[in-house]
Design brief:
The complex is a heterodimer of chains A (252) and B (172).
Chain A (H helix, E strand, L loop, with lengths): L1 H27 L7 H18 L6 H29 L4 H28 L7 H31 L5 H25 L6 H23 L16 H18 L1
Helix pairs in contact in A: 1-2, 1-7, 2-3, 3-5, 3-6, 4-5, 5-6, 6-7
Chain B lengths: L1 H23 L7 H7 L5 H8 L1 H10 L2 H37 L4 H33 L8 H12 L14
Helix pairs in contact in B: 5-6, 6-7
The chains are: A mainly alpha (252), B mainly alpha (172).
Chain lengths: 252, 172
């Protein structure tokens, strides 16, 4: 019991320390202008958890602060994905249009799937309000994870401008949202996870995300500009693959 | 149950993709020396020979159908492996192009943009070529016009090199 309580406290405090450091680093490096939504998310979660530390549990004020903060955090989490995407899109107008079209299609598919999830699960338990909140949170997480999957796949396939901060943000959210979604589903539908385990798994997932963000934000990344580009035969390779694709076109 | 399966599949994909991002990291190459050490040296003529339809016809004539299938699939596997290695090279070159842009030298920036555009175009063509190769590997005696769809995109992509940069600087 004491161990479980200690573990819960550690899982609560560790990400707070990391996020405080991340917020400080972002302010110092003026990254708040580049990632304002991620900065807002970090500050929101940080301030909410600090406030919760001083509120008596379980009281209605505690619940109010927790759930309002959670709803805002989910919304900002979705906003962070769009913010990161803005930085990842290449500066070529044509490619931006193509990628945006694919992205919008992916987002529409994800929203459709999310709505299907919401409408196919009617509340059956005693606490309808709590069930509705969990269902909405699950749906939002699902949307977040879908958007992340589309985004990572697109960007990785074409090797577009990943830079360390965007990569860290996306990877952290990817791990956290996926684990959180799994925990919610294992608990609510498959009943694989007990309440005691559930209250540890979710913060543990968030801790993992905070560690990933910290690993990408805290070290000072300084890139040395290249003096010249290396010799390469990419043009010939591109021609060879283009010829092959054309050959298919002519042939079939 | 269907929704649970959907959720499990999406969450597992996200975890897998996030892991692949973290494992690879963006910093494959930072200097010329890194490039020389890490680049995959492959002769483009070998892949041209592997993809040559005349070679294919010759093999078809010279070998028995069973032998041809085995041999042909082996060639396709080899081609795919080589293309994967060149794909890695393209990724490293994109990174080097980004680093070169940080120099703020007009000529170097132009060359870097050209290199990045070629690399993206190459990756897009690979995206189209791979399914064709898989189909050929699965059914050596049959073809499907997957690429016909892609050629239109390729023509559009050809304009990439000419497209003006909007002046965005990558964050490094």
């Amino acid at each position: 019991m004491i161990f479980s309580h200690l573990l819960t406290q550690i899982l609560w405090v560790v990400p707070l320390v990391f996020q405080l450091a991340i917020a400080a680093v972002m302010l110092r490096r003026r990254l708040t202008k580049i990632f304002p939504v991620f900065f807002s998310y970090t500050v929101l979660v940080l301030s909410r958890d600090i406030v919760l530390l001083f509120l008596p549990y379980p009281k209605s004020l505690y619940s109010l602060v927790y759930w309002c903060g959670e709803a805002l955090a989910v919304l900002l989490g979705l906003g962070v994905i769009f913010e990161t995407l803005r930085h990842l899109l290449p500066p070529y107008r044509f490619l931006r249009i193509v990628l945006k079209s694919v992205w919008i299609l992916g987002a529409l598919a994800a929203v459709t799937a999310m709505l299907m999830l919401v409408f196919s699960n009617g509340g059956t338990g005693e606490d309808r309000v709590l069930e509705a909140i969990i269902l909405l949170e699950r749906a939002a997480r699902f949307l977040q994870v879908c958007l992340l999957v589309v985004m990572i796949t697109l960007m990785s396939r074409l090797g577009l401008t990943w830079h360390q901060y965007s990569l860290g943000i996306v990877a952290g959210f990817g791990v956290y949202s996926a684990l959180d979604l799994l925990a919610l589903d294992f608990r609510a539908h498959l009943h694989f996870v007990s309440d005691n385990a559930f209250v540890l798994i979710r913060p543990a997932a968030y801790n993992l995300a905070a560690v990933i963000w910290a690993a990408y934000f805290l070290p000072s990344w300084s890139s040395i500009p290249l003096e010249r580009l290396p010799k390469n035969d990419l043009r010939e390779w591109n021609q060879a693959v283009t010829d092959y694709v054309d050959q298919w076109h002519r042939h079939y | 149950m269907a929704s649970t399966l959907l959720i499990l599949a999406v969450a597992a994909s996200a975890l897998g993709l996030a892991w692949s991002l973290l494992r690879k990291g963006p910093f494959d190459v930072r200097t010329d020396r890194d490039w020389e050490e890490k680049k995959n040296d492959i002769d483009v003529q070998i892949v041209r020979a592997l993809l040559d339809p005349n070679e294919e016809r010759y093999l078809r004539r010279s070998l028995s159908p069973r032998q041809f299938k085995i041999f042909y699939r082996r060639r396709i596997r080899l081609t795919l492996r080589m293309l994967r290695l060149v794909d890695e090279n393209a990724g490293m070159l994109i990174r080097m192009g980004q680093l070169a842009r940080l120099k703020h030298d007009a000529e170097l920036t132009r060359q870097a943009d050209e290199l990045i555009a070629t690399a993206i175009q190459f990756r897009w063509n690979l995206f189209l070529a791979r399914p064709c190769l898989y189909v050929q590997g699965l059914m050596p005696s049959w073809g499907l016009s997957l690429a016909a769809l892609g050629v239109r995109y390729r023509h559009l992509l050809d304009s990439l090199a000419c497209v003006q940069q909007c002046g965005c600087q990558p964050l490094v």
